[in-house]
């Protein structure tokens, strides 16, 4: 192992930054894949894999991916909710890995909602 | 690999003894079985703090806190939470007496009310991964001092921070460094005192297990400031896991060139060795510790000269405690002004305590100096179990003393505790409830110090033994008039006649219990009565016939078969057969068992 110089520290820190942000629960964007029984049956696991592959491929440090249960619209699974800052959450329906790739490129990185795959913006009113 | 979930499983000594390693294995197998091994990463960490509830599993990024996880529950947990995203309520933490679980670690009062400096990385990093320490600003402070600060500036910064020794003495750290730097002789040695010996205390072990690099970095900074090129980490032999992690961390730091020769390419040299302690309580005393490293019997010697002038092998030596070292990098990174803003006039920063005894949330807590005992015991500790009343809080272990329950609003800092007759000590904090006999507690600590006295000084060796004998007699119902006065006469003699802090502080538990609970001593001696119902020679168990329903539960649980009677009728205890174990009182649902 080569001896470190002071400037090497930030390189090492950058390498594990995504892991650290994940553990602190601090991501810029949160992607929720709905993994209820309905979702899994409709292919949510492929959607999850596609999302993680996108993070790897695009080297996104500040995007968190979590699993959540059924979103209540079982006929339109697999579904995914994207929570970006200063935007209402967006629910995407009838997903395929290709659509996930597009959503990552246009919405998560580009900041523009992919209208043709989106069901609606916002969430149900709570209580 | 881009994981979506990090499952942080606590592998501290407490959790491991509760089966954490088996749970970890089961998790790995189940995650593989569910084909989630590309999604979920299992990370072993150091102590989370709430170790009495171990094994602990924290799932990030959601921050879901699971406690008392067992192998049996792993398949359900993996399917529900990791696969379907539905956190499992039955494994979540509940406040004492509450039914609603608190899912997130960020909302649990035990964690929310703490402020972490020394324990900043606990539960967040894998202690065996130096890169993760670096990602949390690790070794930035070392780089800063080596490239932009003079040794004098470093010492000034530590002095300005107001940091005081966390091992118990509370000596200003910056001043200690300055004295060592000022010594002309070379070479100079640094020692990290990790010989944590107070019963029930595990602050240092926890830092070593959770974040070993914080100690290494602190020592490197100290070495630069004082002009040392060799350091030792003197760790208690009873801490095998801490020693193993520390050794691995030292190797990793050496591979990265963060210790050894020409650190960061600046020409500064400093190397470290992990030294296993000799297994005696007195080794935690600095001159005994030094003798132990030199291969001599661990016995204290006269001071002065202090180690800063003449320590290890007669050379200038600086000794600081684990927690003190772990604070150093943060002070350099965040500045003395930031640090000294936390705490009280005379005590800056935070202090780590191991909270133990009759308290719901026993565990490891780090709190700002100046917090009250009440906040620690009730807000963080969750209060006293079984609705009992608090009697006293003991701080400082065998060297410390008791603060009575009516002084619970005392602010915790070095000087306030000293005024109350207790000490900050290294951070042991034992909560005792009304069912505790204070004479018996004092006896317990004296038994410990009597057996751990190295025997070098007469006063400590013989004096403690004499005090212990008196306490034993009092508890056995053989106390006599004049015993209290004799204890009060012996205590200062032991203190004055002892070379080191072991003897000089050992009478403290007796003195503070006499100060605040003298009536209990008097009841034992004059009335042959133990008010708390603990000392067996002074109590009898009986059954209240008005309350007893004849359920026979006590009969089934009595190990002596000493209880008899007809079903559905009041029972009776045969006093000759009774060994006063209290099993009947513990199981009685009607409060019918009386102690007199």
Quick synopsis:
With 127 residues, chain A is an alpha+beta fold. Chain A contains 5 helices and 5 strands; from the N terminus they run ααβααβββαβ. Chain A has a 5-stranded mixed sheet.
Strand order of the largest sheet of chain B: 9-10-8-7-11
Q: Total number of helical segments of chain B?
A: 23
Question: Roughly how much helix do the residues of chain A carry, as a percent range?
Answer: 25-40%
Q: What number is the mean pLDDT of chain A?
A: 88
Biggest sheet descriptor of chain B? 5 strands, mixed
According to CATH, the homologous superfamily of the largest domain in chain B is: NADH-ubiquinone oxidoreductase 51kDa subunit
Largest beta sheet of chain A: what is the strand line-up? 2-1-3-4-5
Calculate the terminal CA-CA distance of chain A, rounded to whole Å.
57 Å
Might you state the CATH topology name of chain A?
Answer: Glutaredoxin
Q: Report low-confidence residues of chain A grouped into runs of 5 or more.
A: none
Strands of chain A, count: 5
Please identify, by name, the CATH architecture of chain A. Answer: 3-Layer(aba) Sandwich
Query: In what range is the share of β-strand residues of chain A?
Result: 15-25%
Key words describing this protein structure:
heterodimer, A: 127 residues, alpha+beta, Glutaredoxin, 5-stranded mixed sheet, 5 helices, 5 strands, 39% helix, B: 596 residues, alpha/beta, Rossmann fold, Ubiquitin-like (UB roll), 5 domains, 38% helix
